[in-house]
Amino acid sequence: MRIRPRRLAAVAVALLTAATALPAAAADGPARDRHERPSHGGLSAVIRYTEYGIPHIVAENYADLGFGTGWAQAADQVCVLADGFVTVRGERSRFFGADGTSDLSLSSAGTNLSSDLYFRGVRRAGTVERLLAQPAPRGPSRDAKELMRGFAAGYNAWLEQNRVTDPACRGAAWVRPVTALDVAARGFALSVLGGQGRAVDGITAARPPAGASREPSATQPAPEAVARAARELFAADGADMGSNAVAFSGRTTANGRGLLLGNPHYPWHGGRRFWQSQQTIPGRLNMAGGSLLGSATVSIGHNAHVAWSHTVATGVTLNLHQLKLDPADPTVYLVDGRRERMTARSVTVPVRDGAPVTRTQWWTRYGPVVTSLGASTPLPWTSTTAYALNDPNAANLRASDTALGFGRARSTDDVLDSLRRTQGLPWVNTVAADARGHTLFTQSQVLPRITDELAARCSTALGEVTYPSSGLAVLDGSRAACAPGRDRDAVQPGIFGPSRMPTLTDAPYAENSNDSAWLANADRPLTGYERVFGTVGTQRSMRTRGAIEDVAAMADRGGLTVADLERQQFADRVPAGDLVADDAARACAALPGGTAADSAGRPVDVRAACGVLADWDRTVDVDSRGALLFDRFWRALIKAVPAGQLWKVPFSPADPVATPNTLNTGAPGFATALADAVGELRAAGIALDARLGDHQFVVRGGARVPVGGGTESLGVWNKIESVWDPAGGGYTEVTTGSSYIQAVGWDGSRCPVARTLLAYSQSSDPASPHHADQTRLFSGERWVTSRFCERDIRSSPDLRVVRVRER
């Protein structure tokens, strides 16, 4: 039977008072100063570990829950966490050198120095402290702040009571206690990841013009070039992060209840890894799922009533203001004819084996002056013009409250209500289903309030090109009326309110694969939203097209169960292969003499490739033969052939899922791409019909673990991005892809029916028994049966109960 809340409370109290404590190991390093410790209140929690090292954390209150979470995360991921805390403290140059590679999981900074200048500037300005001091709902709630306080205390207690064994940071001076402010600063870094975080190098490198660069004629960015770069920069389906998620309504399922499949595509290494747990405060909160490292709440997960997932959204989370400068002083700008002086922030960064570096950053009423958005988007600061970056998520520390609202929800309506009350999600969509059979898709994210009307009225010449093509608004900063306005239902100025968010409720299916909200359901397209949210009536990615084909067919078939979600996750169908492989095989067989010239003009015998492509099963399972050849061919083809020449049937908004189609095998680059792929594999000593899993793998414990799945351009649901190393056998280390996966439904009992999988496993420590166990499951397309209810946790054959507490 299901343990009811009162019974659960009794069980938890018993555990909290009677469970045995972890054996206390000697602490590493010297005793910590009291001022570094965020708590002296004797915080404690009970952690019950089940199969695959998944912790089920029980606590009496939010501070204790944060304590147990911080402890358990440190036990699995102390080195990754510590590295991130070094980042948000602005100490990477101190420990790793100024020119070293930054922590790319928390910003786009090109070097440690650039990262430190930005994050120390945030500290110097007291930005996070001000956000913490804001009353809810504009600032974080007391519960959220208690979670942060407890997380820091739990992390510190683990460090004090255990030795670090992970060679990545064992004995390192940079593994130190943290404060609640450090935890909040990490949350801030994630919040601005799509805004200021994209432009760290451009913020920290901004200098007032001197010499020739002060001339008004100094090179200004070419609008078309900036527009192209912005489209690439803000593409939500890029290689770094993405996701799929689908919710099915009760009209499509076997028992009239909802189903949800979440498949986020996140990095397999570093600080944007997920970590799996269950968090319980008896009678108040009970949720399970994946948390981004350093977060004290579940990011993607479920409770007894509702399940949710997120996908990276197409909303452009920043905009630019083009400043009109005083020709006599480039640090003074004009607004409605009045002079305003920029604020100078002097930041000093200590550097290992070198003198400290001091630089000045320049801030305006709109945000920081920025001289680039990525390497390909220069925004020069001249004597007459500069650009300021507006990022509304720099005032958003509310994501934890949004997550807590999800955890307490009993329906998709409650999920939507949490989004409306807290408005805390910076750069993701939400897809949800509940036990009553309801579905939800919503692009409820924090975006600058750029309406199409405002863009039409206030865009500069540059913005007139960038906004329609990419959603990046460049507004006239010399007019106060051109600042983003405020919606009455918005919790902070300058953002859209909940009533403006693209939202779809109770559709038979609601799906997103990182394209805009338009085709969350192809039969009920969403329209009428502003361009900054994304496009309407434009070509969808190959992954979106394949996903809609799959889930629409599933919904039409009906009678769905969790097992259908499991099959969809690992179907590994290649939509590009279905569209292309037959035509490619026939065109290959028709090549004169069975040869084609490669990119260097050398003839290549491609006859064997024709049969391999024809016989390929159109999947990227580990046993698929021909998948590797098609993958390398397809990558070469889309690089060689312009998009407008690739297909014979162009895209049509009237048939957006099925178009474009019919490969143009007559395009000049077709035969060349085929020859290049064949030559590449032969040079690497790889058979054209080799098993994919023999050449797409990760190495764990010195052994190869084959990995199925495929790259973004193939359109595979089970997305995997790996490093191509022909000298090392093909694809070796996975960089990004399927991460915390969950398939959730309900059967009428009080326990959800949930299957989960953390593709890269719980721990980054090679010595941990949970460093590769779920990775092997992922390789074998096997799942973990979720132990959510009390009876299931207590019946685990691997159950290990520990009590953790402050000394």
From TrEMBL:
- Source domain of life: Bacteria
* Keyword Signal listed: yes
Q: Does the keyword Hydrolase apply?
A: yes
* Pfam families reported in the protein's UniProt record: Penicil_amidase
- UniProt entry keywords in alphabetical sequence: Hydrolase, Signal, Zymogen
Q: Where is the signal peptide?
A: 1-26
Family to which this protein belongs: Belongs to the peptidase S45 family.
User: Would you tell me the protein name for this molecule?
Assistant: Penicillin acylase family protein
Q: Which organism is it from?
A: Streptomyces plicatus
Taxonomic classification: Bacteria, Bacillati, Actinomycetota, Actinomycetes, Kitasatosporales
